[in-house]
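Task 17 of the worksheet. Students: predict the tertiary structure of the chain below and write it out as structure tokens. Keep your answer in the requested format; marks are given for formatting as well as content.
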Amino acid sequence: MYPYLSSPITINSLTVRNRIIYPALGVLYSYDRKLNDRYYHFFEEKARGGAGIVTVGPVGVDFIGSGIIVLSLAEDEAIPSFVKLTSLIKEQGAAPWIQLFHAGAYSHPFIIDGKEPIAPSPIFSKYSKATPREMTREDIETVQTAFVRAALRAKEAGFAGVEIIASGGYLITQFVSPLRNQRTDQYGGTFENRMRFPRELIERLREKLGPDYPLTIRMAGNDFVPGSNTDAETPAIAQVYEKAGVDLINVTGGWHETKVPQLPMDLPRSGFSYLAANIKKVVSVPVVASNRISDPDAAEKILQDGCADMVSLGRVLIADPYWPQKAFQGKKEEIRPCVACSQGCTDEIFSGKPVFCTGNPMAGFEGERKIKKTAQPQKVMVIGAGAAGLEAAVTASIAGHQVTVYEKGNDIGGQLYIAGAPPHKNEIWEFIRYYRAMIRKYNIPVRLNTAVDRSFIQNEKPDHIIVAEGAEALIPPIQGVDDPCVLSAWDVLKNNPLLGKNVAIIGGGAVGLETALFVADRGTIRPDVLHFLFAYDAEPIDRLRDLMFHGTSQVTVFEMLPKVGKDVGKSTKWVLFGNLEKHGIQIRTQAKVCSIHHGTVVYETDGKTEKMQFDNVILASGSRPVQRLSKEIAELGIPYKTVGDCVQVGKINDAIHGGFLAALDI
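Model answer:
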């Protein structure tokens, strides 16, 4: 399977077993800049899963450029710990790589002990919320030397190759960018001068590492920041890197501060592969495509179409390290999906917390969460086929128990169908695809349209019960909620009923805002029709944009709190809010809805009572646990666990991780 993806590739003098790279991603498994067992288990699993290259990083070359939360190879004392890591990766057949890192103006003062960040020019950084000190010629020499020394340590530690980061808005990107480099000396101004710092650095690295040692670079294909480099300029940048001595160019998207989504579901799968193709046209060294390459078919097509020579699978390999093995064995349906939710990875990093994965309970816990075959198989009844129940069933089955799933509805998936209904959220349905494959793989009986009660359980005589009853829509205490025009967000997202021209959403949390987008998006133009109309100049650009964002309903959201989106993830909130604005959705905060009557919504705001008329009113006031059965089971004397929303309403990761851990406890 996948002849291009699975074929070896030579980078300088090194042959790598396939075309898959696990790239450098911050995971924050220590706060002392040092490796530990959690890192060792994490990276070993990436190699064991079949990736060709496993990149460790980012790894700081000095303190001022990386601070206290990034791994460091700035001192010789760190070499032995990295020797251990490279040995673990090599033992699994992968090539260990390292990404050397300097944040420049992106260094937050609080992670560098209050010191002043350094950068090409003293320009305030929106990312670090600080103004850096302009680097002197001595600073430039010091930083370049730090890179070289760290690279030599990496080579001594057994890394098969070294990558330097020239993307994301970090130091090298800042030198190259006309927006961030306003120097008047030989390191600023013209293109040649702005390229001087990275060119000199690459040349020095090549000289010290030797001609046969793989040296690579990760670059932005387009900064996606107004006034900085676009994909019109980046090919020339790549040519300078190649001429200076790099053996491979890993092309990613833009800076961290860009307003173009780089990682969430809003970015279509393989959406930035065109950036790699743009670079590949002008260089002769291998080129890597990155960002949201989720499935093997898409990865193979990128290579087959000549857009790139390798693919970089970051969060995808956190969600399932065995993605390569499963792909090459023809088992792509068994790949545990990365749904690009950002909740366990990007949101956690932005909060200063270690990375986990929403859909993979073992990611980041490889050393402690292990499924062991039981010596005493039990008859396990799983009640409820939502995310929690399905994960519990699969895990218990892998452990060797005799598992049967009982679901009152006519299909598995539960609230996953609802969660994946809003625009750009369909990736969540990949969990259902995955669990269907696991049910087939482990021959787990699933009895649909089966309501379980106390007598049913007594007749089945299970040894252990896992209850995943889920939740139900919460109906707020508002006069008129039984009005014919009133629907719940669950009804709308699940059944997509006919709605009128003016629709109100009561509740400005994540569910309310995503329901608002779902409604506002109805009747907008499909991507394939947009492509057709654009290709044939059938409509003006402004008209096409209007058709993209204005559908058949105008939506207004009512929220009684001062702000909406309180429970939306940090890294994706700005994307959601931007989409709300594009779709023309009206937000009314500090607006307490008092009553609904024949579509008239009466609400209080600023001490005044106002009213608006709507065709439909949708309640998005949250949900509450369903605990009908779990309370009865306690009286039966059968060991049991309750998991998912029936314990406490939470996020998908709470359900999946809870189901997994409950199964381990059998």
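Marker's comment: Residues 379-472+626-664 form a domain with the Rossmann fold fold (CATH 3.40.50.720). The CA atoms of residues 381 and 465 lie 5 Å apart.
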